[in-house]
Structures are given as C-alpha cells and as structure tokens.
C-alpha cells in the first residue's frame, strides 16, 4: 500500500497524531486497529467522514478520500479537529500531549 505524503503541516500533524495514537491505542478498546491506515479509516468514520455502500443486502460504511483532490484544506482541517476530539473524548488520547511526549523522547 502506497501512503500519500502529507502536503501541508496540518496533514503531517494529523498523520503523526494517528501514528502516535496507534502506538498508544488502549488495549481494552473494543476496536483494535491492524495498522495506522486501519486506525485512520476508523477515526474518519467516527468523525463522520464516510459514505454508505449497499451490496447484496449488506450496508457497508466506507471512509471518504482525504486526498488533496477530494477534500478542501478547510474541510480537511475540520475533519482533523473532529478526529482529535474523538481521540480525546472517547479514547483519552490527547493530540497535543502525544506530540509533546514524542518530541521529548526524540
């Protein structure tokens, strides 16, 4: 899987926060991501950035693209803030705290 390189500081920050969240993901959380991409998709859906696909009587919820072509800068920033809120409110993972701790240990 080829990962898109962040093109703005806001995108780089979100991808870094998701990497750190994956490393610090609660062991007792009902959802256990396989990797950072899996976690990113999950967080996008929790933040309301997805669409439904019905196939053979089953409805699937899929994340929408966050590529530069698919989402505006302003919309991306709103989505990032929603993801940070999900991490803080539902999983007690603070984006600023994770980034500061990571800088201290770098």
Task: Tell me the total number of β-strands.
Answer: 2
Low-confidence segments, given as residue ranges, are none
| Helix-strand sequence | HHEEHH
Instruction: Strand order, main sheet: write it out.
Output: 1-2
Global mean pLDDT: 92
How far the N terminus sits from the C terminus, by CA atoms, comes to 27 Å
How large a portion of the residues is in β-strands, by DSSP E? 5-15%
Indicate the radius of gyration in whole angstroms.
Answer: 14 Å
- Profile the largest sheet: 2 strands, antiparallel
Summed up, the helix count is: 4
What is the global morphology? Answer: globular
**What percent of the residues sit in helical stretches (DSSP H or I)?**
40-55%
Structural class: mainly alpha
Topology record:
Layout: H1 9-23, H2 36-46, E1 50-55, E2 58-63, H3 73-91, H4 95-104
Antiparallel strand pairs: 1-2
Helix pairs in contact: 1-3, 1-4
Explain how this protein is built.
The chain is mainly alpha-helical and 106 residues long. The chain contains 4 helices and 2 strands, in the order ααββαα. A two-stranded antiparallel ribbon has the order 1-2. β1 and β2 form a beta hairpin. α1 packs parallel to α3 and α1 (9-23) crosses α4 (95-104). The chain starts with 8 loop residues before the first helix and ends with a helix. The mean pLDDT is 92.
Summarize the structure.
By secondary structure, the protein is mainly alpha-helical.
Which features would summarize this protein structure in a list?
106 residues, mainly alpha
